[in-house]
Amino acid sequence: METEKKGQHKHPVLRSCIKWSLYASISIWLGVTAFDQIEKHINVSFWGHIGAEKERQLSCIKDMYYMFVTKKITDYSTHEWQRDKLYTFRSQEGALYKKGTIFVKYLRGLPGDTVEINDKYEIMVNGKVVASGFPIFERHGIRIPEKFIFKEVIPPHKYYMLGDTEHSYDSRYWGYVDEEDIIGRAYGFFAVGK
């Protein structure tokens, strides 16, 4: 009996190392697996990397959140689109940002809605004014092209996205967002200056 007990405690440090290595391996595996599952459904973006003019610390959303957590859309055909809520999407190639830049804007127009910009530069969706003017053009002395005055029905799988500050580079400048470029519904956290 005594010999057995002595044998059991012959290498306590080695036994402890093996035990903690096993715990660490299991914890790492569980962490990686959990992160992989979370990453399939959640995206985190930080202010300054979401289409804001970061060099001048300008934001396209009045509530200047430091972080946006996006619930990813896994099935576009069953997703319940929420008008006037924030969505995260990847930009197309444009004059100010490279393709794939992450933007956060309000969803103002859905497929089948009528979007109109009149000669007073009021941006309307279904007859309701949702924004006005082209502040970025005005700031840079750019004449507003005539093609920007129009009225049409938003095509299937296209969405009209707008910010709510004069710094917002949005659908009034570059048109619709393709459904496949929308990552998901965004939620703001840690408002700056509040």
TrEMBL record:
Segments forming domain Peptidase S26:
72-187
Asked if the Swiss-Prot or TrEMBL record annotates the protein with the keyword Transit peptide, the reply is: no
Q: How the protein sits in the membrane? A: Multi-pass membrane protein
GO MF annotations in UniProt: serine-type endopeptidase activity; signal peptidase activity
- Say which domain of life the source belongs to: Bacteria
Q: Which GO terms describe its biological process?
A: signal peptide processing
Main localization is membrane
Keyword Protease (UniProt): yes
Q: Which CDD domains does the record match to this protein?
A: S26_SPase_I
**E.C. number(s) listed in UniProt:** 3.4.21.89
**InterPro entries associated with the record:** LexA/Signal_pep-like_sf, Pept_S26A_signal_pept_1, Peptidase_S26
Q: Which UniProt keywords apply?
A: Hydrolase, Protease
The family annotation for this protein states: Belongs to the peptidase S26 family.
**Record's PANTHER family?**
CHLOROPLAST PROCESSING PEPTIDASE, SIGNAL PEPTIDASE I
> Mind telling me what this protein is named?
Signal peptidase I
Q: Which organism is it from?
A: Ruminobacter amylophilus
